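[job 0417] fold request received: D-dopachrome decarboxylase
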Amino acid sequence: MPFLDLDTNIPQQDIAEDFTEKLCSAAASILSKPKERVNVTVRGGASLIIGGSPSPCVRLIISSIGVVGTAEQNKEHSSKFFEFLTKELGLTPDRILLRFHPLEPWQIGKNGTVMTYL
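[job 0417] inference complete; emitting structure tokens
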């Protein structure tokens, strides 16, 4: 059950209407998870500085069970997320930061319990 939280200082009205859906589909493919399990939040117009510059930028936090726990996994995921974000948002790689968070099943609540018991 991946969670993606994207913050950008690009104004919301300048982000394509279908961007959230595209990010969801891309994440499902990149992380090899069913699209129905991917959760995406996109916040445009954030007050955000990367590398000391307020130029257009993106910070993407990717949290998931079992697929973001090693450097090898995240190196592969990183390459694919950068490819998607540079293409869709027109940013250079130096204006994008990713943060990976491995999760345990007991850390995710769903249907009145936690994923451990589902």
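[job 0417] notes: Strands lie at 3-8, 39-43, 58-65, 96-103, 109-110, 113-114. Residues 71-89 form the longest helix (19 residues).
[job 0417] exit 0
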